[in-house]
Structures are given as structure tokens and as C-alpha cells.
């Protein structure tokens, strides 16, 4: 799963404005990553130049070098975040997360901390896979987005995070449905009920809820618990009266009157 709305692109690009470049460009023909003692303006400008050219891995290495050679400069703080940003663009999400976490460990109260939390959350979000695979990374994305929202609820990054939380929750609900249908196909009704109930109870605001209620109706009838099936169908009818899932549940209940 890789959903990157234009709003996200605008937010991550805003870092280039938050962390401005100083000085003029130097000779880019030098071996950029070779260790040569250079002033901070030269290193930072070379890194930003590589970033602008789309050479994200090299840019990240140069930002790291800026921090290494000038650890007590104000540019070191900026370079840490720009390194994380560059690794993100290079899709090296592990290194991006490491850089952002290092920034937070050294500058926990910095004004750019919300961005660092946002970047960490994006790194997990970008690695979300389809529902047929393990969803550990999806839960990490949800947790990281939640941490950002909890710490900085009024930040512009939190607003985007809230939108992504809805998508992530829908994805996790989809995983529960996938497993529930797997059990249902094998007539393992009790195991299926547990999965479908998880969707109804934990992910009730997602797009999967109507189907989960219909599947519960099926499963309860198969288990010989018509009263529970009737309750599930009633909830479905009250909340999603025009859906195809209610039509199916209604037809099932007509064949199995409680």
C-alpha cells in the first residue's frame, strides 16, 4: 500500500523552506563524500544541491557529514532533519527513521520536532503492504501517527496524520475481514465470528463494517444462534439500510426466521 496524497507531498517539501540554505554553491566536481575538512556552509550547500538534483542518497550522506564535522553548529540540527528527509525521498525508510529519532533524542523540545514525528510516521506508512501479508508495520504506522496527533494535535502535520489514520484503520479492518473470510470458507464459524466482531467493535467507522455485520449474520446462523444473527442483521439494517450487505442479510433471515 502506498498512498501519498498531494497534501503529503506539499508537507514534506515544506521542510526545504523551514530549513533554508546558506552560502553559495561550491565546486560540485569534488568527491562529495570523501572526508575533507570543509566549512559548514560548503558542506550544507553541497548537500542541498544534490537534493535538488534528485540524488537523495548522496544528499543524505552529505547532510550526515555536515553533522559529523560540525556537531555543535546550528547547521548540525538542520542537517539531521534534512538527512532524514533525503533518506525518505530515497525510500530508505530505516535510515530516515534513525535520523529523525536521533534528532528527537538530542532536540526533543525543538520547534521542528512535530516534523520529525511526522516523518517517522510516514516511513512506516510507506511500507504498508496488502492485507494478505503481516500487518505489523501497519500497526506501527498507526501508533506513530497517533503519537504525533497526541503530542502536537494542532500542528499542520497532525491534520494530515488524522486523514492517514482513517486509511490505516480501514486497512487493518480489511486484514481482519480477510482472515474472517478464510475461516468462514472452512466452516470454522467461531473463529470467523471473532474476526468479524473485531471489525464491528474496533473498526466500526471503516468501510468494512457492513460486510462484517452480514458475515456475522451468516456465521451465527451456521452456529445455530438465530437470535444473535437477528441482532447483527438489525444493526446492519439500522445503519446501512440501502447496502447490498443488508439485502443479503435480510434474505438470509427470511430463510431462517428466529
Strand-helix topology:
Blueprint: H1 6-13, H2 15-18, H3 40-52, H4 56-69, H5 74-89, H6 93-106, H7 113-125, H8 136-151, H9 156-185, H10 189-202, H11 209-222, H12 226-239, H13 244-255
Helix pairs in contact: 3-4, 4-5, 5-6, 5-7, 6-7, 7-8, 7-9, 8-9, 9-10, 9-11, 10-11, 11-12, 11-13, 12-13
In short:
With 258 residues, the chain is mainly α. The protein contains 13 helices and no strands. Residues 16-30 have low confidence and may be disordered.
Q: What do these coordinates show?
A:
This protein has 258 residues and is mainly α. Among the domains are: 20-111; 187-258, Tetratricopeptide repeat domain (Serine Threonine Protein Phosphatase 5, Tetratricopeptide repeat), CATH 1.25.40. 71% of the residues lie in helices and 0% in strands. The protein has 13 helices and no strands. It has helices spanning 6-13, 15-18, 40-52, 56-69, 74-89, 93-106, 113-125, 136-151, 156-185, 189-202, 209-222, 226-239, 244-255. The chain is elongated, with a radius of gyration of 25 Å. The chain starts with 5 loop residues before the first helix and ends with a helix. Residues 16-30 have low confidence and may be disordered.
The percentage of residues in β strands lies in under 5%
Q: What's the main sheet like? A: none
Count up the helices.
13
Compute the CA-based radius of gyration.
Answer: 25 Å
Helix coverage percent? over 70%
- Amino-to-carboxy terminus distance: 42 Å
> SSE order, as H and E?
HHHHHHHHHHHHH
Q: Strand pairing plus helix content: what structural class?
A: mainly alpha
Segments where pLDDT lies below 50 for 5+ residues? Answer: 16-30
By DSSP, the count of extended strands is 0
Give the CA-based shape.
elongated
Mean pLDDT: 88
Amino acid at each position: 500500500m502506498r498512498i501519498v496524497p498531494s497534501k503529503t507531498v506539499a508537507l514534506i517539501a515544506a521542510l526545504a523552506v523551514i530549513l533554508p540554505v546558506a552560502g553559495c554553491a561550491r565546486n560540485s566536481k569534488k568527491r562529495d563524500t570523501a572526508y575533507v575538512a570543509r566549512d559548514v556552509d560548503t558542506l550544507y550547500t553541497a548537500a542541498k544541491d544534490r537534493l535538488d538534483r534528485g540524488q537523495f542518497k548522496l544528499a543524505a550522506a552529505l547532510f550526515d557529514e555536515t553533522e559529523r564535522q560540525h556537531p555543535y553548529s546550528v547547521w548540525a540540527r538542520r542537517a539531521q532533519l534534512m538527512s532524514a528527509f533525503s533518506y525518505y525521498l530515497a525510500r530508505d525508510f530505516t535510515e530516515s527513521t534513525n535520523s529523525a529519532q536521533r534528532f528527537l533524542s538530542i532536540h526533543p523540545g525543538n520547534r521542528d520536532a512535530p516534523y520529525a514525528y511526522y516523518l517517522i510516521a510516514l516511513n512506516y506508512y510507506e511500507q504498508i503492504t496488502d492485507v494478505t501479508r503481516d500487518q505489523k508495520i501497519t500497526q506501527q504506522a498507526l501508533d506513530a501517527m497517533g503519537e504525533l496527533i497526541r503530542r502536537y494535535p494542532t500542528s499542520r502535520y497532525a491534520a494530515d496524520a488524522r486523514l492517514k489514520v482513517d486509511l490505516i484503520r480501514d486497512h487493518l479492518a480489511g486484514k481482519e475481514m480477510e482472515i474472517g473470510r478464510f475461516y468462514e470458507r472452512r466452516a470454522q464459524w467461531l473463529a470467523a465470528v471473532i474476526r468479524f466482531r473485531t471489525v464491528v467493535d474496533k473498526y466500526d467507522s471503516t468501510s468494512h463494517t457492513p460486510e462484517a455485520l452480514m458475515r456475522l449474520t451468516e456465521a451465527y446462523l451456521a452456529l445455530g444462534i438465530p437470535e444473535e444473527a437477528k441482532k447483527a442483521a438489525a444493526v446492519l439494517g439500522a445503519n446501512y439500510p440501502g447496502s447490498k450487505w443488508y439485502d443479503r442479510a435480510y434474505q438470509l433471515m427470511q430463510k431462517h426466521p428466529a
